[in-house]
Every structure is written in structure tokens, then in C-alpha cells.
Amino acid sequence: MSKDGLPEGVVTRVELAQLAGLFDQFEFAFDPRSMSAQKAASEFERRAQVLFEERVTPHHPGIPFVVFHARLRSACRLYLWRNPASSS
Fold this sequence. Notes:
Layout: H1 13-27, H2 35-56, H3 65-82
Helix pairs in contact: 1-2, 1-3, 2-3
């Protein structure tokens, strides 16, 4: 298990940085109903689903998507807290 709470190798550092950027755009948006916030949320959800299907399900079939999704969101929050200059 990595420091961010995700199984090793599921999400690379680069992917986590990209996901955290998307997460920041919708989670902390001034207007969460804006087109840009909704687009970021949609892309985050799409990427999370792909990661789950390609990397989690084959190696950890007992982990439900909802658990992976919650841990991914937590990892993004932690990433943004640790890297405040990288947030948009």
C-alpha cells in the first residue's frame, strides 16, 4: 500500500497529479455548476472508471468501485494539500 492509500502501481504519480488537477477544478470550484467544473468532474469520473477496470479489478477483484473512488478522492485531496502550488 502506498502512502496515499492506493494499492501500489494502480495510479502513477503523473496520473495522480493530473487527477488532482481535475479534482481541484470541480471540488473547489467557485461555481460547481459551471461548464468547466462539470467537464472536469466528468473527465475525473471517466479516468477513475478506466483505472478501476484496467488496474484494480484484474488484481483486486474484491475491491468495489465505491471504495476505490473514495480512496482516489482522498489521495487527490492529500496531493493538493501537499502540493499547493500545483493546484489551479
